[in-house]
Amino acid sequence: MPQIFTASADTRLRAIALILAAGILGGGMFIGGYMNSTYTTRIGWVQNQPVPFSHEHHVGGLGIDCRYCHTAVETSARAGLPPTHICMTCHSQIWTGAPALEPVRQSLASDKPLEWNRVARVPDYVFFNHSIHINRGVPCVECHGRVDQMPLMMQAKPFQMQWCLDCHRDPAPHLRPPDQVTRLDWTQWEADKDHEVYGKLMVKAFGIEPKHLDSCNICHR
Ligand code: HEC
Ligand code: HEC
Ligand code: HEC
Ligand code: HEC
Ligand code: HEC
């Protein structure tokens, strides 16, 4: 019968044990970092777009309101992306020959919508609705950040379950008058603490129930 444990077996076993331990430790560290890394939260991510549309220019520079382009945001679940003719209300007059706008002109001529690549999204099994948030005075900036400073749209917030829940369990400090939801630089109240007082009043007035807002079937229907 051959010898099972050779002289070198002990060393080899130790080496294997060491590699396994390092693997488990490293794996744990990988998962820990992975969960909160920008790879999973996607914060700061941008997409290539058919046209280099800049919110910094159009919102920050020209001061166009969100609702001019995202027309459905107050009335439906989806904010919607603007149809080409909205771009052309201006771009049939200005920058008419710009090469960057060629896809826009083609889209109008061929009646095919521009195919924007989506940046801000949740998985299909999550139910989301814009109008509910907008009508309760949850501002765009809470969820999409300072888009007026973004040359290319990027993901600003994690859009993970915990992030939704943090606000749902205590929405008061995040609320403002619904007619101010699209103002990204609205700071009027930050100084005088009116924010929290107003928020608490609105939670009462709108009948918002934070206890009810973290039940699973609110977002998973
Ligand atoms: C209310 C008028 C208006 C509308 C609507 C509008 N634009 Fe513009 N756009 C401008 C002006 C003015 C400029 C020049 C900005 C500058 O250089 O400061 C511009 C510049 C651009 C540029 C050049 C690059 C840049 O950002 O400077 C692109 C590309 C562009 N627009 C795409 C679009 C698209 C796509 C739409 C539709 C979703 C659109 N625009 C809607 C007024 C408008
Ligand atoms: C002149 C038109 C215009 C205005 C005004 C405008 N947007 Fe947009 N928005 C677009 C276009 C076109 C896209 C698609 C291209 C892109 O992602 O940049 C877009 C994309 C977005 C997206 C990413 C959607 C996705 O999932 O890909 C968000 C979020 C957004 N806009 C928020 C806002 C907010 C908030 C405001 C107001 C503060 C605003 N936009 C004002 C035209 C506009
Ligand atoms: C409470 C958080 C929240 C607020 C407030 C909010 N959004 Fe969104 N927005 C989201 C989420 C989540 C998505 C992804 C929805 C999906 O994938 O179905 C999204 C997607 C979008 C999109 C992509 C197209 C669409 O309809 O899915 C646009 C454009 C957009 N938001 C614009 C706006 C504008 C403009 C405002 C303010 C008037 C606003 N959002 C306010 C969370 C928010
Ligand atoms: C900054 C605060 C805030 C964030 C972030 C937020 N919400 Fe909300 N959400 C609210 C408020 C306020 C209401 C209104 C509650 C009411 O009217 O009773 C609401 C209501 C809802 C409702 C409707 C509840 C009902 O009674 O039918 C859904 C669905 C919802 N949110 C999903 C989401 C999802 C999914 C996310 C994350 C992607 C999210 N919300 C992030 C504040 C927030
Ligand atoms: C306020 C909205 C909201 C509520 C309430 C909510 N979820 Fe979620 N849930 C989400 C979002 C958003 C995601 C997507 C997370 C992502 O893409 O990373 C998600 C993802 C999940 C997933 C997929 C795995 C994961 O963690 O990414 C499971 C399972 C889940 N939720 C279970 C639940 C259960 C069980 C409850 C009730 C205790 C619940 N959710 C309540 C918003 C919500």
Automatic annotation (TrEMBL):
Instruction: Give the species this sequence originates from.
Output: Microvirga puerhi
| Segments crossing the lipid bilayer | 15-35
Q: Which residues does UniProt assign to the signal peptide?
A: none
What is this protein identified as? Cytochrome c family protein
Question: Which PANTHER family did the record assign?
Answer: CYTOCHROME C7-LIKE DOMAIN-CONTAINING PROTEIN (PTHR39425:SF1), LIPOPROTEIN CYTOCHROME C (PTHR39425)
Which controlled-vocabulary keywords does the entry list? Answer: Membrane, Transmembrane, Transmembrane helix
Q: Which SUPFAM superfamilies match?
A: Multiheme cytochromes
Top-rank taxon, per record: Bacteria
- The answer, when asked if Glycoprotein is one of the entry's keywords, is no
Alphabetical list of CDD domains matching this protein: Cytochrom_C3
